[in-house]
Amino acid sequence: MTNVLDDSELQRILAVMAHPDDVDFGAAGTVAAWTDRGIEVVYLMVTDGDAGGFDDGVTREEMAALRREEQRAAAKCVGVSDVRFLGYPDGRVEVGFGLRRDIARVIRQVRPDRVLMPSPERNYERIYPSHPDHRAVGAAALDAVYPDARNPYAFPELLADEGLEAWTAREVWLSGGPVVNHYVDITDRFDRKVNALRAHASQTAHMGDGLPEMLRGWLGSNAAAAGLPEGSLAESFQVIDTA
Protein backbone atom coordinates (compact mmCIF):
# COMPACT_ATOMS: atom_id res chain seq x y z
CA MET A 1 0.00 0.00 0.00
CA THR A 2 1.03 3.59 -0.51
CA ASN A 3 0.52 6.89 1.24
CA VAL A 4 -2.69 8.47 -0.01
CA LEU A 5 -3.85 12.04 0.55
CA ASP A 6 -6.67 12.15 3.06
CA ASP A 7 -9.93 13.18 1.44
CA SER A 8 -10.31 15.89 4.10
CA GLU A 9 -7.32 17.66 2.47
CA LEU A 10 -8.97 17.82 -0.96
CA GLN A 11 -11.20 20.43 -2.53
CA ARG A 12 -11.38 19.30 -6.15
CA ILE A 13 -10.75 16.15 -8.18
CA LEU A 14 -10.56 15.90 -11.97
CA ALA A 15 -11.35 12.63 -13.75
CA VAL A 16 -9.87 12.46 -17.26
CA MET A 17 -11.24 9.52 -19.25
CA ALA A 18 -11.30 8.40 -22.88
CA HIS A 19 -14.99 7.56 -23.35
CA PRO A 20 -18.35 8.11 -21.69
CA ASP A 21 -18.85 5.20 -19.22
CA ASP A 22 -15.11 4.67 -18.53
CA VAL A 23 -15.24 6.52 -15.22
CA ASP A 24 -18.39 4.62 -14.22
CA PHE A 25 -16.98 1.18 -14.93
CA GLY A 26 -13.72 2.00 -13.17
CA ALA A 27 -14.57 4.38 -10.36
CA ALA A 28 -18.24 5.39 -9.97
CA GLY A 29 -18.44 4.06 -6.41
CA THR A 30 -15.28 5.89 -5.43
CA VAL A 31 -16.51 9.11 -7.05
CA ALA A 32 -19.74 8.82 -5.07
CA ALA A 33 -17.69 8.56 -1.88
CA TRP A 34 -15.76 11.70 -2.81
CA THR A 35 -18.84 13.78 -3.57
CA ASP A 36 -20.54 12.50 -0.42
CA ARG A 37 -17.63 14.03 1.51
CA GLY A 38 -18.17 17.39 -0.17
CA ILE A 39 -15.33 17.18 -2.69
CA GLU A 40 -16.05 18.78 -6.07
CA VAL A 41 -15.47 16.30 -8.91
CA VAL A 42 -15.20 17.33 -12.56
CA TYR A 43 -15.33 14.90 -15.49
CA LEU A 44 -13.34 15.41 -18.69
CA MET A 45 -14.15 12.97 -21.51
CA VAL A 46 -11.63 13.05 -24.34
CA THR A 47 -14.03 11.47 -26.89
CA ASP A 48 -17.80 11.43 -27.24
CA GLY A 49 -17.87 7.65 -27.65
CA ASP A 50 -19.12 7.89 -31.23
CA ALA A 51 -17.70 4.44 -32.11
CA GLY A 52 -19.74 2.73 -29.39
CA GLY A 53 -23.16 1.10 -29.34
CA PHE A 54 -24.77 -1.78 -31.20
CA ASP A 55 -27.43 -0.18 -33.42
CA ASP A 56 -26.59 0.21 -37.11
CA GLY A 57 -29.59 2.50 -37.46
CA VAL A 58 -27.97 5.18 -35.29
CA THR A 59 -25.55 7.53 -37.03
CA ARG A 60 -22.22 8.22 -35.43
CA GLU A 61 -23.22 11.84 -34.84
CA GLU A 62 -26.40 10.66 -33.11
CA MET A 63 -24.43 8.18 -31.03
CA ALA A 64 -22.02 10.90 -29.90
CA ALA A 65 -24.89 13.15 -28.81
CA LEU A 66 -26.62 10.25 -27.05
CA ARG A 67 -23.49 9.24 -25.18
CA ARG A 68 -22.85 12.78 -24.00
CA GLU A 69 -26.35 12.84 -22.51
CA GLU A 70 -25.88 9.39 -20.99
CA GLN A 71 -22.65 10.52 -19.31
CA ARG A 72 -24.34 13.59 -17.86
CA ALA A 73 -27.13 11.40 -16.48
CA ALA A 74 -24.64 8.90 -15.06
CA ALA A 75 -22.66 11.69 -13.43
CA LYS A 76 -25.76 12.86 -11.57
CA CYS A 77 -26.07 9.40 -10.00
CA VAL A 78 -22.78 9.96 -8.18
CA GLY A 79 -23.03 13.68 -7.43
CA VAL A 80 -21.13 15.15 -10.39
CA SER A 81 -22.60 18.07 -12.34
CA ASP A 82 -19.60 19.42 -14.29
CA VAL A 83 -19.00 17.15 -17.32
CA ARG A 84 -16.77 18.34 -20.15
CA PHE A 85 -15.94 16.84 -23.56
CA LEU A 86 -12.97 17.42 -25.85
CA GLY A 87 -14.55 15.80 -28.92
CA TYR A 88 -11.60 13.71 -30.10
CA PRO A 89 -12.53 10.83 -32.47
CA ASP A 90 -13.41 7.61 -30.64
CA GLY A 91 -10.93 4.83 -31.42
CA ARG A 92 -8.28 7.15 -32.87
CA VAL A 93 -6.84 8.93 -29.83
CA GLU A 94 -3.09 9.39 -30.00
CA VAL A 95 -0.69 10.93 -27.50
CA GLY A 96 0.47 14.27 -28.84
CA PHE A 97 1.10 17.86 -27.89
CA GLY A 98 -2.44 18.90 -28.82
CA LEU A 99 -4.05 16.41 -26.45
CA ARG A 100 -1.55 17.19 -23.70
CA ARG A 101 -2.30 20.90 -24.06
CA ASP A 102 -6.06 20.34 -24.01
CA ILE A 103 -5.84 18.30 -20.80
CA ALA A 104 -3.33 20.70 -19.21
CA ARG A 105 -5.76 23.54 -19.98
CA VAL A 106 -8.52 21.83 -18.00
CA ILE A 107 -6.15 21.00 -15.14
CA ARG A 108 -5.29 24.70 -14.91
CA GLN A 109 -8.98 25.64 -15.12
CA VAL A 110 -10.16 23.15 -12.47
CA ARG A 111 -7.03 23.25 -10.25
CA PRO A 112 -7.56 19.75 -8.84
CA ASP A 113 -5.73 18.24 -5.90
CA ARG A 114 -6.10 14.73 -7.37
CA VAL A 115 -6.47 13.54 -10.96
CA LEU A 116 -8.07 10.22 -11.87
CA MET A 117 -7.17 8.73 -15.27
CA PRO A 118 -6.81 5.41 -17.09
CA SER A 119 -3.53 3.57 -16.74
CA PRO A 120 -1.17 4.13 -19.68
CA GLU A 121 0.09 0.56 -19.24
CA ARG A 122 -1.39 -2.54 -20.81
CA ASN A 123 -2.95 -4.99 -18.36
CA TYR A 124 -2.25 -8.50 -19.65
CA GLU A 125 -4.19 -10.15 -16.84
CA ARG A 126 -7.39 -8.37 -17.87
CA ILE A 127 -7.19 -6.92 -21.36
CA TYR A 128 -10.46 -4.96 -21.51
CA PRO A 129 -9.31 -1.86 -19.60
CA SER A 130 -6.36 -1.57 -21.99
CA HIS A 131 -8.21 -0.13 -24.98
CA PRO A 132 -5.76 1.95 -27.08
CA ASP A 133 -7.74 5.12 -26.33
CA HIS A 134 -7.51 4.42 -22.59
CA ARG A 135 -3.75 3.99 -22.73
CA ALA A 136 -3.30 7.08 -24.90
CA VAL A 137 -5.45 9.23 -22.61
CA GLY A 138 -3.62 7.90 -19.55
CA ALA A 139 -0.23 8.73 -21.06
CA ALA A 140 -1.30 12.22 -22.19
CA ALA A 141 -3.04 12.99 -18.90
CA LEU A 142 -0.03 11.90 -16.86
CA ASP A 143 2.18 14.12 -19.02
CA ALA A 144 -0.31 16.95 -18.56
CA VAL A 145 -0.06 16.55 -14.76
CA TYR A 146 3.74 16.32 -14.93
CA PRO A 147 5.28 18.36 -16.37
CA ASP A 148 2.84 20.37 -18.50
CA ALA A 149 0.22 21.89 -16.19
CA ARG A 150 2.70 22.86 -13.49
CA ASN A 151 5.33 24.36 -15.79
CA PRO A 152 4.50 27.99 -16.67
CA TYR A 153 6.76 27.73 -19.71
CA ALA A 154 4.97 24.68 -21.13
CA PHE A 155 2.22 25.77 -23.52
CA PRO A 156 2.84 29.45 -22.65
CA GLU A 157 -0.22 30.39 -24.70
CA LEU A 158 -2.42 29.00 -21.91
CA LEU A 159 -1.16 31.81 -19.68
CA ALA A 160 -0.62 34.49 -22.30
CA ASP A 161 -3.92 34.03 -24.16
CA GLU A 162 -6.21 32.46 -21.54
CA GLY A 163 -4.80 33.67 -18.24
CA LEU A 164 -4.39 30.13 -16.92
CA GLU A 165 -1.70 30.00 -14.25
CA ALA A 166 0.42 26.89 -13.72
CA TRP A 167 -1.04 24.31 -11.35
CA THR A 168 0.43 21.29 -9.56
CA ALA A 169 -1.90 18.34 -8.94
CA ARG A 170 -0.56 16.56 -5.90
CA GLU A 171 -1.77 13.04 -6.62
CA VAL A 172 -2.76 10.79 -9.54
CA TRP A 173 -4.99 7.73 -9.41
CA LEU A 174 -4.67 5.26 -12.28
CA SER A 175 -7.55 2.92 -13.08
CA GLY A 176 -7.46 -0.39 -14.95
CA GLY A 177 -3.71 -0.94 -15.00
CA PRO A 178 -1.56 -3.93 -14.06
CA VAL A 179 -0.37 -2.44 -10.75
CA VAL A 180 -2.71 -1.91 -7.80
CA ASN A 181 -1.66 -0.31 -4.52
CA HIS A 182 -4.96 1.06 -3.22
CA TYR A 183 -8.53 -0.19 -2.84
CA VAL A 184 -11.73 1.70 -2.03
CA ASP A 185 -14.60 -0.13 -0.33
CA ILE A 186 -17.73 0.76 -2.32
CA THR A 187 -20.09 -1.82 -0.81
CA ASP A 188 -22.50 0.85 0.43
CA ARG A 189 -22.40 2.69 -2.92
CA PHE A 190 -22.69 -0.29 -5.23
CA ASP A 191 -26.28 0.52 -6.20
CA ARG A 192 -25.23 4.00 -7.29
CA LYS A 193 -22.48 2.51 -9.45
CA VAL A 194 -25.02 0.19 -11.06
CA ASN A 195 -27.41 3.10 -11.64
CA ALA A 196 -24.63 5.16 -13.21
CA LEU A 197 -23.76 2.33 -15.57
CA ARG A 198 -27.40 1.72 -16.46
CA ALA A 199 -27.60 5.38 -17.47
CA HIS A 200 -25.29 4.36 -20.33
CA ALA A 201 -28.16 2.42 -21.87
CA SER A 202 -26.64 2.37 -25.35
CA GLN A 203 -23.72 0.40 -23.93
CA THR A 204 -25.21 -1.63 -21.07
CA ALA A 205 -28.92 -2.27 -21.72
CA HIS A 206 -28.16 -5.58 -23.42
CA MET A 207 -26.53 -6.85 -20.19
CA GLY A 208 -29.82 -6.71 -18.28
CA ASP A 209 -29.64 -8.39 -14.87
CA GLY A 210 -26.19 -9.68 -15.75
CA LEU A 211 -24.62 -6.28 -15.18
CA PRO A 212 -24.74 -6.31 -11.35
CA GLU A 213 -23.62 -9.95 -11.36
CA MET A 214 -20.61 -9.15 -13.54
CA LEU A 215 -19.70 -6.16 -11.36
CA ARG A 216 -20.02 -8.17 -8.16
CA GLY A 217 -17.63 -10.72 -9.59
CA TRP A 218 -14.73 -8.40 -10.22
CA LEU A 219 -15.42 -5.97 -7.37
CA GLY A 220 -15.67 -8.91 -5.00
CA SER A 221 -12.27 -10.14 -6.20
CA ASN A 222 -10.84 -6.69 -5.52
CA ALA A 223 -12.30 -6.71 -2.01
CA ALA A 224 -10.82 -10.12 -1.32
CA ALA A 225 -7.40 -8.93 -2.51
CA ALA A 226 -7.75 -5.93 -0.21
CA GLY A 227 -8.52 -8.18 2.76
CA LEU A 228 -12.02 -6.76 3.23
CA PRO A 229 -14.77 -8.85 4.86
CA GLU A 230 -16.61 -11.41 2.74
CA GLY A 231 -19.41 -9.80 0.77
CA SER A 232 -17.53 -6.52 0.38
CA LEU A 233 -17.04 -4.82 -2.98
CA ALA A 234 -14.07 -2.62 -3.89
CA GLU A 235 -12.61 -0.58 -6.74
CA SER A 236 -8.86 -0.72 -7.33
CA PHE A 237 -6.28 1.89 -8.30
CA GLN A 238 -2.60 2.68 -8.51
CA VAL A 239 -1.98 5.88 -6.55
CA ILE A 240 1.03 8.03 -7.49
CA ASP A 241 2.43 10.95 -5.52
CA THR A 242 2.87 13.82 -7.99
CA ALA A 243 3.32 16.71 -5.54
UniProtKB/TrEMBL annotation:
Pfam families from the UniProt entry: PIG-L
Superkingdom field: Bacteria
Lipid metabolism keyword on record: no
Gene Ontology terms, MF aspect: hydrolase activity, acting on carbon-nitrogen (but not peptide) bonds, in linear amides
Keywords assigned by UniProt, alphabetized: Zinc
Keyword Cell inner membrane: no
InterPro entries: GlcNAc_PI_deacetylase-related, LmbE-like_dom_sf
Residues in coiled coil: none
GO BP terms in the entry: glycoside metabolic process
Protein name from the UniProt record: LmbE family N-acetylglucosaminyl deacetylase
Organism: Actinomadura citrea
Lineage of the organism: Bacteria, Bacillati, Actinomycetota, Actinomycetes, Streptosporangiales
